[in-house]
Amino acid sequence: MWRPVVVCLSLLAADPSQAQDLIRLARIADIPDQYVGGEMLRAVYAKLNIRLEFEDLPGKRALALSSAGAVDGEIQRIGTLSRDYPTLIQVTPAINYIEPAVFATKLRFVVAGWDSIRDYSIGIVRGVGSSEAGTRDMARVTAAASLDNMVRMLDADRFDVMVTDLFSGLVAVRKLNLQARIYPLSPPLERIHIYHYLHERHRDLVPKVGKVIAQMEASGELAALREALVKQVLATP
């Protein structure tokens, strides 16, 4: 997992050492954007004097535990999550966004939405809701256990293209030193706003967290923090 040395400490409003409460959130393992979203939420919860811890898990396992209340919620998921997991309550406004993108090794074409990849064999990461929703009903979809695993499978020509959020894909490809072979196609498939979720036992906390997110969004603090975190992850060897 990524460990930026400095994350714009002036953006954090409270000293975590003084936090009186603890919230444990599921974090999809080895997904760079989940790291960024988690650190954004750390800043949000610091303003409420609440400390965060993260449980790194595969995507499906994360949902099983968070929806059962074994952990307190999810860092960030797509907006329709509560439809399938009603015990998870969406916190609004959105905490982050992702841009699902197509990566390839041989193909070159202009991406025109999800239907433009329908005729190809596609790799996705199991449990990543945006990828599962976007490729639903497509004939040749392979679900990999992790992002790194999917990148290696694409490198081995196990499928024609892979789909992951653009930022996470770039980080994973560089991590595995495959930049000369694997590249993103343009433009991204779409931009999706993603939301923080808390288990229903924390129902009273939901509006408080949402209020802080809204304030940080309005002030530009949230966007500045995201930009700083993305730059630091991309710059980390």
TrEMBL record:
Name of this protein: Transporter substrate-binding domain-containing protein
Organism expressing this protein natively: Bradyrhizobium frederickii
Species classification: Bacteria, Pseudomonadati, Pseudomonadota, Alphaproteobacteria, Hyphomicrobiales
